[in-house]
Amino acid sequence: MEIKKKSIKKKSKKKKRRIWPLVLGFFLLLFGFIGFVLKSKKFEIHYVNVEGNTLLSDQEVVDQMGKIEGNIFLYSPKEAILRLQKVEGIQEVSIEKDMPDRINVLIKESYILANLKGDPSYQVDNRGIVRERGKGNVIKDRVVPLEVVWNKGVIEKGKALSDDPRDIDFMAALLKTKISDNIKHVTFDKTGNIDIMIEDILVHFGEPDDIFKKINNITAAIKEIRTKSIPAQEIIVKDGREMIVVTEGEEAGQEK
User: Fold this and answer.
1) Which of 44, 119, 160, 166 is the most exposed place for a label (fewest CB within 10 A)?
2) Edge-to-edge strands of the sheet including 194-198?
3) How wide is the angle at C-alpha 31 spanned by C-alphas 29 and 35, nearest 5°?
4) Is the bond leading into 120 cis (omega within 30 degrees of zero)?
């Protein structure tokens, strides 16, 4: 019995001696792999993908982030996030690593779309939330809020202006057009139709459908009216393609 016990002890020592080289080999391979990853150009940051930005260009966002270089495993996005959070118009930002060489930046913007005429006077932001005047973020030299007459429903501070998201999409799209600087005011009536006063021309936009198609056609029509010096008073948008221009002294003018 004693001989058997000794032989068992000797076998266990032999097993331990066999395991240590394997463990050592594993860690050597691990450290070698880590060294390869940290030095390999394959894992250097080469691309930055920006999403969610409408006011700032991709390049402007990247420029505000500071240095974005080196190994993607060693890159810390904390400083870039802090820098972007200080940029006017950015409400939230998140940065994710997309292996092996890409950084994804997701932006959520916050800015005032329109001043709502009335007493008291409120504002509506790009999320469609009604705010006290002066409490929102107006982006200087980038966004000049629309002047809006809201007859479609009740205006309540802190709540959504409209239950139709197309209304907010329409205002956001209108601000991005070349004619936005010439808009005096926009009126939403009780039936959901929209009128736009562009300088001295009243545009009957209708409902907020086919928004981009209608806006592009209105922009082209306004340009033609100015170029040809047409004495237009009204533009009636019948659908995305057809419009009626009403000139001075006419009840219904030429179709475009």
Assistant:
1) 119
2) 130-132, 122-125, 112-116, 146-150, 183-188, 194-198, 201-206, 232-237, 243-247, 254-255
3) 115
4) yes
Burial (CB count <10 Å: 0-12, 13-18, 19+), residue 145? buried
The one-letter amino acid code at 207 reads: E
Tell me the whole-structure pTM to 2 decimals. 0.72
Longest Cα pair distance anywhere in the chain, in angstroms?
A: 123
Burial class (CB in 10 A: 0-12, 13-18, 19+), 196: buried
Tokens (6 digits) for 219: 């922009």
Token pair for 104: 């994804």
Distance separating alpha carbons of residues 49 and 42, to the nearest angstrom? 18
Structure tokens at 60: 């402007």
> Which residues make Cβ contacts (< 8 Å) with residue 247, sequence separation at least 6?
230, 231, 232, 233, 253, 254
For each of the chain's 256 residues, which pLDDT tens digit applies?
444 444 555 555 555 566 776 666 666 666 655 555 556 778 899 999 999 998 888 999 999 999 998 888 889 999 999 999 998 888 899 999 999 999 999 999 888 999 999 888 899 999 999 999 876 555 655 678 999 999 999 999 999 999 999 999 999 999 888 899 899 999 999 998 999 999 999 999 999 999 999 999 999 999 999 999 999 999 999 876 688 999 987 654 444 4
